């Protein structure tokens, strides 16, 4: 296995996100790209505003999920929970010895050691998260916000 113990903050990591068009994984991908990592990914062939935003931010998104779009020198393979274990990309990443994590695992690892506010519940999570982010920003803090919807 390559770079099984890599740390996000010590070097540029080449990250591939399978299912990158989902709201959570797209936010993770954009966050990692903004922090200087090299991010690419794949999603089903459907165009969406989320994928368009990622591409505008310099992230390459392939609609080919056969495994051909997965660069062989990928350090970290992140997958959406919607991507089954027997998908061609996950199987190729496993054969290649890439470190694999689900989106929740990767987000948890990224947040390890950071001050974090998590919002849970049945209704209103995105609204409460957006309001908390706005309050923190308005009081002079510089929060990183991962929210389950697109925000202005």
- Number-wise, the strands total 5
- Biggest pleated sheet: 5 strands, parallel
Strand order of the biggest β-sheet: 3-2-1-4-5
Task: Give me the number of helical elements.
Answer: 5
What global shape is seen? globular
On the 0 to 100 scale, the average pLDDT is 90
End-to-end separation in angstroms reads 40 Å
H and E order: EHEHEEHEHH
- Helix percent reads 25-40%
Radius of gyration using CA atoms only: 16 Å
Overall description:
By secondary structure, the chain is of the alpha/beta class. It has 5 helices and 5 strands. Strands 3-2-1-4-5 form a 5-stranded parallel sheet, sandwiched between helices. Helix 2 (49-56) links the parallel strand 2 (38-42) and strand 3. Residues 1-5 have low confidence and may be disordered.
Short description:
Helix content is 34%, strand content 14%.
Which properties best describe this structure?
single chain, disordered N terminus, 152 residues, 5-stranded parallel β-sheet, alpha/beta, 5 helices
């Amino acid at each position: 296995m390559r770079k099984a113990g890599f740390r996000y903050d010590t070097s540029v990591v080449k990250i591939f996100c399978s299912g990158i068009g989902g709201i959570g994984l797209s936010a993770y991908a954009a966050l990692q790209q903004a922090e200087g990592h090299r991010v690419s990914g794949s999603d089903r062939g459907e165009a969406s505003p989320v994928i368009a935003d990622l591409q505008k931010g310099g992230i390459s998104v392939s609609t080919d999920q056969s495994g051909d779009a997965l660069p062989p020198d990928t350090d970290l393979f992140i997958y959406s929970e919607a991507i089954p274990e027997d998908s061609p990309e996950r199987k190729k990443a496993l054969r290649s010895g890439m470190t694999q994590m689900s989106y929740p695992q990767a987000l948890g690892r990224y947040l390890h050691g950071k001050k974090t506010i998590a919002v849970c519940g049945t209704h209103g999570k995105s609204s409460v998260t957006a309001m908390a982010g706005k309050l923190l920003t308005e009081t002079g803090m510089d929060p990183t916000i991962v929210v389950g919807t697109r925000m202005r």
